[in-house]
Amino acid sequence: VQLVESGGRLVQAGVSLRLSCAVSGGAFESYSMSWFRQAPGKERELIANIKWGGGSIYYADSVKGRFTISRDNAKNTLYLQMNVLKPEDTAVYYCNSPTEVLPWGQGTQVTVSS
């Protein structure tokens, strides 16, 4: 299985970004999938999760109401719509299963300036 994250860039606070995670080599439609992020000097944290069928969605309190996780099983792709970005959202963003059993991708850098 290969995970390839994309969509991150430098933005100003308040704007929106959409991240994508392309999954290849596995039965994507069978996995629950999550977005994680790792800020400088901090541990990687799970911020959103979606079940294989698109239901039972979870968000960390830090992103609830601003971020939306979704998936397109036909395209083997996971998405994270991020709205009203804040400087504290600056991090490298990764996708993986919630149990972190898939090989990690390179992540995508999101930098939010104030």
Number of strands: 10
Given the structure, what is the number of helices? 0
Report the C-alpha radius of gyration, rounded: 13 Å
| Fraction of residues in β-strands | over 45%
Distance between the termini: 37 Å
Q: Based on helices, strands and strand pairing, what is the structural class?
A: mainly beta
Which parts are unreliable, with pLDDT below 50 for 5 consecutive residues or more?
Answer: none
| Helix content class | under 10%
Name the shape in a single word.
globular
How do the helices and strands follow one another from N- to C-terminus?
EEEEEEEEEE
- Sequence of strands across the biggest β-sheet: 2-10-9-4-5-6
Mean pLDDT: 95
Question: Main beta sheet: strand number and arrangement?
Answer: 6 strands, mixed
Please, could you describe this protein's structure?
This protein has strands spanning 2-6, 10-12, 17-24, 33-38, 45-50, 58-59, 67-72, 77-82, 91-96, 108-113. With 114 residues, the protein is mainly β. The strands form 2 sheets. A 6-stranded mixed beta sheet has the order 2-10-9-4-5-6, with no helix packed on it. A 4-stranded antiparallel beta sheet has the order 1-3-8-7, with no helix packed on it. The N and C termini lie far apart (37 Å).
How would you summarize what this structure contains?
The chain is mainly β. Helix content is 0%, strand content 47%. β5 and β6 form a beta hairpin.
